[in-house]
């Protein structure tokens, strides 16, 4: 995809995201920073357009998470649109702040774990303990899902 | 030997540019280097052959546009206009065509379509309608609009720079016929597409729900850009009366806007189309080398002998050859070669060559509409449509556009004959 076509694709994203109420900052025509305020919560996304025409999207705030890789501008705008709608929906819950805190802690844990195995020689016994704890956490997520009422139907869950 | 080398390198370079096998800037750069390596020209001659007026005008306008487009003003105007049209597809097509033609007269054609195409695609997607008629209209409008002014299309910039004809000379001599051609083209497009441009009311409401104000990203910058753009266009209009070049006007506008916008110049210069700028520079050197060995004078002698110094025949020959050639070839190298040729014709015969410049401008700019490869704007729009799963074939485009191009050249013929050649 030549630079001209990348610019056109980028401008289409920009117009659609702006119409959703987002602020879009474009760096050198290929990096897109999208920002949207939901009351006092700031949502931030980042993605880039490459010459293969696929888009790797990441949410940076309120906590970082990979939103996947997509091949068309419609998918990019849709995934951000759903994410904003889901966040708006979740924001209505009294437990929203707790949900954000837990997610931030999970991210911190992932970072701590990476530091642990990059900087220390972790024994097999200790590693097995992590496996067990993670299995417990997975079971807890499934159990919570089965006990809870679904509240968003515009899109199917990506991982559970 | 020098003559043989120059002509061979020139023909080979132009043939490869036409074949589009290698990037046009790369091959013209290579052609220039061959001329230097074989001692046909030296670097001093090469640098002195570059028309820095054309180069400066292009760079100045690219800087102004690159800053102005950041404000979202083009999207604002397009959305506002579509809402004024109440979401009616034909009216949207009409308004976007007018915006494209006016923008093209003041900015580069490719820049214009790159600014208008995204918002057009968003609107046609909202209306659930085929974008091809809209994009077709934009190609034609960009090339027609660009014909009207000195800064609208690269051939006109080159003609203006080499001949001393000013911005208002182009406006006064070309705008009347361009308006007639534009209206006729839209009328014929209406006959062709109007029946297919109907959508349900619920889809029109989607357009009405769009908020144009959300497109405006920086109001302060918008105000600054509009002031500078207005002053620059005013500067173009009066440059002959105040004794400054159009290039100076564009560079002054660019410098002032860079200064007052306080944007990192690295970001703006990154968006200047340096490949196009260098392509122009190398073309000027190639043509100057050809002129230097007497080939241009030799062709001019041939043309004067063929036309017997008849201004009507010469002007119409230039108009029609330029139009047909520009339909299939890149009009920039063609015009770069035609300019010294017309100058030589002027030197060899007593005829007033001013109408020949208008014939060249009309032929080279309007001819670009003839085929999908006739102008850069056409290639870019066809590429955009293909990326969005709406491929237009070469023949499909030509069936619609070639007759419209021929019609526009017929109108130009009548115009030139009645007002300049009679």
Task: Describe the structure in your own words.
The complex is a heterodimer of chains A (160) and B (422). Chain A is an alpha+beta fold and 160 residues long. Chain A folds into two domains: 3-91; 96-147, no CATH class. In chain A, 52% of the residues lie in helices and 22% in strands. Chain A has helices at residues 3-19, 73-91, 96-119, 124-147, and strands spanning 23-27, 31-38, 41-49, 55-61, 65-70. In chain A, strands 1-2-3-4-5 form a five-stranded antiparallel sheet, with helices on one face. In chain A, 18% of the residues are buried. The model of chain A has no long low-confidence stretch (mean pLDDT 86). Chain B has 422 residues and is mostly helical. Chain B is built from 21 helices and no strands. Chain B has helices spanning 2-19, 24-37, 43-49, 52-68, 73-84, 89-106, 109-126, 132-147, 154-163, 167-193, 201-209, 219-242, 246-261, 265-270, 274-292, 295-307, 311-328, 331-348, 354-367, 376-387, 394-421. The longest helix of chain B has 28 residues, at 394-421. Chain A binds chain B through residues 1-2, 4-5, 7-9, 11-12, 14-16, 18-19, 21, 23-24, 28-29, 53, and chain B through 72, 75, 110, 114-115, 117-119, 121-122, 210-211, 214-215, 217, 267, 270-271, 380, 383-384, 387.
How is this structure best summarized?
The complex is a heterodimer of chains A (160) and B (422). With 160 residues, chain A is an alpha+beta fold. Chain A is built from four helices and five strands; from the N terminus they run H-E-E-E-E-E-H-H-H.
